[in-house]
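@channel sequence for tomorrow's demo:
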Amino acid sequence: MDICGKREMDLLQQLGFTRTAGSPEELQAAEILKAQCEALGAPAILQPFEIEDAEVTECTLEILEPYCQSYPVTGYKCAQNTFGDGLEAEFLYVEDADQVSLSAAKGKIVLVNGFMRVPLFRKLMKAGVAGIVTMEGELRDDRGETDLATRKLRRTLRAFGNVPMAHTRVLDAFDMVKRGACKARLVLKNTLVERTSHNVIATVLGTEKPDEIVSFGAHYDSVDFSKGVYDNGAGSVINMEILRYFVENPPRRTVKFVWYGSEEIGLEGSWAYVKGHKEELAAHQLMVNVDVGGPVLGMDKVTVTGEEKLVHFAEYMSKICALPAAVRQGIYSSDSIPFADSGIPAINFSRDGAPGAAYIHNRFDTLSFLSAEALEKTTRLVLEISRALINGRVFPVERTVPQNMVEEVEKYLYKKELAEVAEEK
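structure tokens (generated this afternoon):
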């Protein structure tokens, strides 16, 4: 069997619709992937898991002094609701939440640069802010051609506290600060709901070492407004082509393919998988993750969350097969993280778009900047490296995550900060 980029593009086109976590569209995409697996002769299952979500029924931000004006905002799901007529308080721009700016932030609605991360949120909670407004976009945005995302205050952040939160455009934040906004009213009403997401799982048993597993992963959900073909329909179709290869060329070791749901809201699908398959994980030798691919202008990258020897192997294979790639040891913010956290080494493949030549997490993530040839190139790289390992007489990769990578994973998961706040409570 030869790799076929046109076949990958055809499947990618089928998946090219917005499919957010736990939505009917995400389930539709899961069913497309399941049907494709079965058409290849690989029985597949849809494995459900529950995710936390919320429905925002109202969110408004009104500047009250020194002028009166309402601005378009979206509410943070799972953030604290306001009561009555809303939260009315002084309004303060705290920039990147430096110590000086936060010294005057207690009890105020604060505007911060960018969107929320754990260190920033923790500082805001310690400063005693009453409400938070984050921002996204560029000053040159056209409202009719760009979208304002609905964000979620994840459990990890809520461990440090909770306040009403809204999200606005950079161009509106600019207007507020330039005009000296100093008092505001924020209204947020949202209701927690539970939704069902799914992982799609297919397995090809090994011919000689069926008890040793190499798993392939790619997430298939998208964010609001995005068709998500670059992120990560591309990884999904690349892994489908790899599955096709191993169905036609039975591997020495078992290969398991998992298309993960709800990655975009916190790796929910892969966390559900490792939590639900603890006994099976003992047999996993390596996790191969593919996330983003297909841009005409770009660069293939390989990120190894494992021993240095695997870095060198991947680099050598790239050169031997004349498939250029930048290879490094590190972590990759995707579904390999829960596996690495469980002690399973991982190798991550991505084709990152050249600056200005690819779009992610917005309405511009479409087929227009992708090609069959670019998909083929990444697929060949994934296949050449993975099949050499899978079909080795002895599996050459040590089943361990080196201490420096353990530390990187723990830093990514903010384990130290979460432990500290648990002790405080």
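heads up for whoever presents: The mean pLDDT is 97.
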